[in-house]
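It is worth pausing here to work through a concrete case rather than discussing structure prediction in the abstract. The textbook approach is simple: state the sequence, then state the predicted structure, then interpret. We follow exactly that order.
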Amino acid sequence: MSAGELAALLETWEPVIGLEVHVQLATESKAFSPSATAFGAEPNSLTDPTVLGLPGALPSFNVKALELALRLGVATGSKIRAKCRFARKHYFYPDLPKGYQISQYDEPLCEDGAIEMFVDGQRKKVRLQRIHLEEDAGKNTHHGTTSLVDLNRAGVPLCEVVTLPDLHSAEDAAEYMRALHRLVRYLGVSEGDMEKGQMRCDANVSVRRRGEDRLGTRTELKNINSFRFVQRAIEHEIARQIRLIEDGGAVERETRLWDAEAGSSQPMRSKEEIADYRYFPDPDLPPLAVDGPTMRQVITSMPELPVPKLERFVREYGLAFDDAATLTGERELAEYLDAAVRAAGDGALARPIASFMLTELLRVLDGRPIATSPVTPVGLAELMGLVVSEVISGKIAKDVFATMCKTGESARFIVERDDLRQISDEAVLRPLCEQIIADNPRQAGQYRSGKDNLLGFFVGQLMKATQGKANPSLSAELMKKLLG
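Step two, the predicted structure:
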């Protein structure tokens, strides 16, 4: 279905969307056993008696997972239980060797928080029902009539982040995913690598006629692993449900599997009810207590969060919203800008530094992390200081930056060594301007007859004659004066 066709349907129908996102916590070992969580190991090489559910093996909770979950709880303004409990969630799949998953049910760690994001430049909150701890299952792969089970992921610690049905478009759902992804990376809670399964989304989707309060029957789209697929899958499901209802059918409560290659979903199984899981408190795990020292340590170690940081960049640095959004997309990139502005010692340099980062620095990095930058924040601050003080031009700054990347030399050293100082002496520039005008009488006549855009031609000729060292603003002013 085209975007236009879907938009026409949504004039009558309102989607209601809630997301359940599984975030892998950045621990080195599993939630309840010492096996490693490394990605890419040989199948079934990261297991142990506890993961395999062997008789006599007992779980022991990974306290690091608690610290990371608490960071996410604090960042989302959630209510955090001083004491919570693990439960057994029973279902029988080949990738769940114990026959149950250790999760949390009626006593989750965190409740009633919110994820903040921007929609069309406006700050918006998506309310959370809960954030709870649990372990992951293994992975099934299917090859024709043969299915294989890899239990390396079994027991990996997760936070499940569950929203209320606050989302009403596929675009907002995808933006929520980006906001959560950015947040967990800022906090160091997770690497959030969706290709490695470190962040996976289940989407609960229903539709109702606009103006109605009652929710429609919802379906669950399972294990979506990219922002683009989240949007496509939800759009497809919204259209499928509307068409089904308008054709006289009824939406069934079921779990559906999204096929990204086919661009469609297929029924997976009927949706389980809570009673089907037969939850009960795990008798092998004591209640989980969150003490005062642990909470204080978590709170004092919190970084500035992405949304307040973006607003600060707009407010204090004077950046355009889209530029601030790009520069706060990764915590390290935002911290590089802050460090460069501090090194410059002048907030007025924030905008030129940010602009240079967005163009030249990101181009040089070509997708690599900012930690690999060949130029330090101090070095970039010095370079931009030379531009703003008109020691060098913006064009020369790009050449100096390229040399800095290759040699590691400072901007000031390169400028002095290669005699790149900008020419801002009118006495030096005037005879050059006069000669250029004399050498181009036809263009001079056209300029004087009203073709003002030819001023750029004359300034360009002067730049060529001075190897880019002429002061651009002085050059333009002087050319205007001499051309009359």
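Step three, interpretation. The mean pLDDT is 91. The radius of gyration is 30 Å.
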